[in-house]
Every structure is written in C-alpha cells, then in structure tokens.
DNA sequence: TGAATTTGTCAACAGTCGTTGATATTCGGA
DNA sequence: TCCGAATATCAACGACTGTTGACAAATTCA
C-alpha cells in the first residue's frame, strides 16, 4: 500500500535496477564491446540469463543504459555577450553532475567503435548544441559554428573523462569556464575571421 | 643484386606488407576490438595463421599498425605571434596527409576502449604538443596550456575523422586554420584570463 | 637433379560471446 | 495450507575469438 506505482509494486523491479546500474558502471569503464553480459551479471550478483530476461538483448540494455533526459530548456541565454559562458557552464553541470554524465560518457566511449552510439552522439550535438548556437548570429552559418563548438566540447570531454589526460583532469571547473568560455563565445557568435 | 636490403631481398616480405596494409585499413574503420585477425587475413587474401606467423600476436600487429614516425622538428616556430597558426597547420598536415594520419586515427579510435592505445595517445600529446607549447610563456604553466591545446586538437580530430560530424567534415582546411588557429594561439600563450 | 629452407594451408584447441530453453525456487493471494 | 505465478538457476547451443601445430607446396641453393 506504500507503493508509488499504481499497478506494479513489483518486488524485483529492484533486480532490473541493479542490472541497469551494473551495466552503466561497466559500460562507462570499458565501453560496449568491453563489457560482457556475463560481467554485468556478475557485478549485479545475478545470473546472465536474467539480464536477457529483463532487457531483451545487449543492444537494448545498452540503449537503456545510455538513455538520459538531458533537459534542454535550461540553457536560455538572454544576452549574446554571455552565450559562451552559458554553454560551458551547462556543459560542466551536465558532465560533472552524476546521472546524466554517465550516459554521456557511455555514449562517447562507445562511439568510436559502435555506430549506434556514434549516431546518438551526433544526434545530441545536432539537437542540443546547434539550436543554442543558432539563436545567435547568421542562421545560415549556424551549422559551422555549432560544429566548432562541438569540437571543443567533445575534445574537452574526451581528454577529461575518457583519456584522462592529467593536465586536463587537473583543471578546476572555474579554470575551464575562464579558459574555454571565451573560445565558445568566439565560435558561437562567429567572431574573428570567417 | 638490385636489392636494397643487404641480406634479405625476401620474396614475400610483400606478404607482410599486405597484411599490415589490410590491418591498418580495418583498424581505422573498426578499431582494435572490431577488427579480427580473420577479417584482416581475408582482406589480405591470406591464411589467418600467416598473420600470427609474421607478427606474433594481435597486440604486436596493432602496435606495428599504429606505429608512425611523426617527425617533430618540423614545427620550429620563430615568433610567438604565429604559434597558434603553426600548430594548426602542422596538425592538418599530419592528419590529412596519408601515412601518419592512419596511425593517428587507429590510435584515437581504439583509445576509448584500449588502454595501450590510450597511453599512446597521452604519450603523443605529452611529447609532441607540450614541448611546442612550453617554449612560449611561463614554463610552470605549460602543462595546463598544452592540455587546453590538446583538448581542442583532439576534439577536432574526433569530430572530423571519427564521428564524422557533418559540419566539421565540411570545413575546409583554410576555415579550420582561420577559426581554430587563434584559439590555439590563445591557449598556447596563456592569453586571456588565468 | 636432389636436399633444405622458406612459404603457405588446414584443422583444431580452448576460451568467450550473446542467447535460449528446461528446470528449480520463491512468493503472493485463496 | 496449497496453488499458480513470478523469479531465479543451470546447462547448453552455435558462433566467434586468438593462437597453435602438423602437414603440403613452393622456392632456393648445391
């Protein structure tokens, strides 16, 4: 009676959550190929067959593990002068805050050798980065500017979360904001040479 | 008598080269895990056992395939005002010129899920990017500045060669130089906020 | 020519992978 | 309490992996 779901209190809906958590952890560490269903099951202290029972295949499990909300309306920039600052702050909030971050790292780590993940990453930056950038400057030019912004953001993520390049890992959030913010500002608004 | 090697004219040294070529192509497309020895052998029209015969394991084959010279003394920047320009031009010459480029793409694509490749990438940017950056500005600060430069360069490479993000692929070399050059200049010299 | 060495072919090994079905265990409701 | 349904276990499948050794063909050198 203390259930929150209307129909299914479902005792071992908990198992499903355990599997998903284990899957996220291993996908983050080793990517799609590197994390086997048996490894995930072992980490969840459960039989490999249960993984298939609940999620129907490894692909579906991966899709669920890489799923995240990524609410976009948070970046509502009012003045053009601070758009670079707003983008990098939002980036940090997303990537360094827990829930969504793991989904992004999963995608990025698997994107290099998994076409589904790669397409998902392209989607994210086409539907999230581009609209924000498009709101400022020449709309016909938005694609190129968003591409440059994406290159810097993805590079930062790659160095900091995947490769763990020491000097990039050592950067504080404030340092990132102060250094990368103006660059994104330049890219997003099309300042400098064309 | 027309041999160039002193001792081994070695008729099927050619086979070894064929295997290496096939390996490079498949490693570039699918990364370390995605390219199997059987696939590589099939592409080289040869028996899988020969791959092991000539290179002793898949790891050694990968190491050989990802090997490239990357002659560093080319970037001798004379004046500080053009270091950003020099870095991005050198980057483009390396990545868009054939022989070394494939090695870099192989490394980058596999780095996300292969620790050997990841370490190699860290090495490249620690030994190639950092010294160039360190020559200008505060030496104590060189690590951070080189890290920022690396984040932009690796992001550009990821978007252009791995993810193939359409707007980034569409950029001409001149556009890249004009847009990214000043950013690298800013990062490398430590201009702007600290 | 014949012998020796290189080069290539074939089948199989032990292991891992995702996935499946039959079977056992546990649990909620009568 | 007992029964049916949900939940979990187990063994095995076919396919794939890197790697190995025994054997055949080709080439080289005398």
Automatic annotation (TrEMBL), chains A, B:
Entry keyword set: DNA-binding
Domain HTH tetR-type: 13-73
Start-end of DNA-binding region: 36-55
InterPro entries per record: Homeodomain-like_sf, HTH-type_TetR-like_transc_reg, HTH_TetR, Tet_transcr_reg_TetR-rel_C_sf, TetR_C_16
Protein name: TetR family transcriptional regulator
Species assigned in the record: Mesorhizobium argentiipisi
